[in-house]
Amino acid sequence: MGITKTEIFSEKQNELAVTFKALGHPARIAILQHIIKQQSCICNDLVQELGLAQPTISQHLRELKNIGIIKGTIEGTSVCYCIDEEMWQSIKDELNAFFSQDASVCAGKCC
Amino acid sequence: MGITKTEIFSEKQNELAVTFKALGHPARIAILQHIIKQQSCICNDLVQELGLAQPTISQHLRELKNIGIIKGTIEGTSVCYCIDEEMWQSIKDELNAFFSQDASVCAGKCC
DNA sequence: TTGTATTAACGCATTATTACGATGTACGGG
DNA sequence: CCCGTACATCGTAATAATGCGTTAATACAA
Fold this sequence. Notes:
The structure is a homodimer. The first copy, chain A, is mostly helical. Helices cover 51% and strands 11% of the residues of chain A. The relative contact order of chain A is 0.12. The structure holds a DNA duplex.
């Protein structure tokens, strides 16, 4: 997208944006939901479940791993992915904090 | 970003992803925080505050308007942007619902 | 009417993202 | 050891996003 000027924003703002961006793709939402639904670490029947090619899934998994929300452990010939519970909670808290800012003060004053 | 295959995902998943993606840029995070901090609808001293050119800010504002999280009303020669409180709450609830999925069942089983 | 200020729209160059085929690596079965 | 399975990585085409210069469009002031 052309280069993003991260240097003019605060570390917090960039962090938040990176997290949001990582979640900003339906395939990655689907992957997370699927991993949770299966209740156990799922390898790549994700390729079977979602209609995407294996390299594409692998790429999305890597992006999710980048923000730490999932982790993968080698399980023989396949790889086992699961939610990093600690990180999941941490991200949940962070987003919650963001949305807990009082957005009501403006309302009614003008718009 | 290359085409995203939205047709193979559910409407909910696509909606969530679009919301996350819209928030996935530090400038847009900064804009929201600034609007909230000022407690009143701020026009484009955003251009002064953030170090980005006016057309760039305008573009980010449009993307935020696209997901409905802010609204803009004409105020004489300038435009007044503020949080759409209802939408803000709605998005907050939606993200909360997503993160309220029980992610703990997997943990301990394997990874 | 003629500026002036504030935004939006358009278009361009640059960089990122998505998706996938081809290729490489690692493991286990035979 | 060889082969098939399961993934990751590389390379590439297509497309989307950033950022900004330039150009309208609109409202207000003089």
